[in-house]
Amino acid sequence: MNDRRILIVGLAVAVLLLLGGAFLLTRGGADSDRFAQCRASVVAGGAGALGGPFELTSETGARVTDAQVFTKPSLLYFGYTFCPDVCPLDSARNAEAIDLLAERGIDAQPVFITVDPKRDTPEVVAEFTDNLHEDMLGLTGTVEEIDAVSKQWKNYYKVNDDGSDYYLVDHMTNTYLVLPEHGTVEFFHRDLTPEDLAQRVACFVNAS
């Protein structure tokens, strides 16, 4: 009789442990990636491995931190104002997506960080961003600061400075989605249309 009771109690405990483990596993999965239904990109170490704290110079000349920049959903792009084609096209696509999001009632902003601080002074960056979108925020800094912030987003770039005024800069063309309180949650390639980009961003914003 005692052996039978022990067996019954043991089985009951085992069932409870299995049910509890399944519950925790399911809850943990949801907590660990609440944006799983929106995600299409794979980042080594997870999307949380992208980004970090910084202090750069705004297009207004003021020094700003990442906390002051990312106060709303932001589409972050690394480029340079002397870029002959890719940067203006990508930045214009991002700006159009921001307007499409506004039509959905989502307040977001485009952010542009230069990878060419030698030529991209705050004044130059301001002229570039103002021509693309009134809410686009441009950031620059020292070479060391730009190097550091690029590495945080795993953004590759190479300045081909040949001594002329018209040198080019090789760089990646990803656009990163940064959400307040969540950090960088996704990145997008340049082949997305403004409509597709807005749709993808809206998914993340609504899930946050």
Describe the fold and architecture:
Keywords: Copper, Disulfide bond, Metal-binding. It holds the Pfam family SCO1-SenC. The chain is of the alpha+beta class. It has one domain: Glutaredoxin, CATH 3.40.30. The protein is built from 6 helices and 9 strands, in the order H-E-E-H-E-H-E-H-E-H-E-E-E-E-H. The protein has a 7-stranded mixed beta sheet with strand order 2-1-5-4-3-8-9.
Uncertain segments are 6-31
Give the CATH architecture: 3-Layer(aba) Sandwich
Spatial order of the strands forming the largest sheet? 2-1-5-4-3-8-9
- Compressed to H and E, one letter per element, the order equals HEEHEHEHEHEEEEH
Count of domain modules:
1
Helix content: 40-55%
SSE blueprint and pairings:
Layout: H1 2-32, E1 55-58, E2 63-65, H2 66-69, E3 74-79, H3 86-103, E4 109-114, H4 122-132, E5 137-140, H5 143-152, E6 157-159, E7 169-171, E8 175-179, E9 183-188, H6 194-207
Parallel strand pairs: 3-4, 4-5
Antiparallel strand pairs: 1-2, 1-5, 3-8, 6-7, 8-9
Helix pairs in contact: 3-6
Question: Which descriptors would you attach to this protein?
Answer:
alpha+beta; 7-stranded mixed beta sheet; Glutaredoxin; single chain; 208 residues; two-stranded antiparallel ribbon
Task: Provide a quick synopsis of the model.
The chain has 208 residues and is α+β, with helices and mostly antiparallel strands. It has helices at 2-32, 66-69, 86-103, 122-132, 143-152, 194-207, and strands at 55-58, 63-65, 74-79, 109-114, 137-140, 157-159, 169-171, 175-179, 183-188.
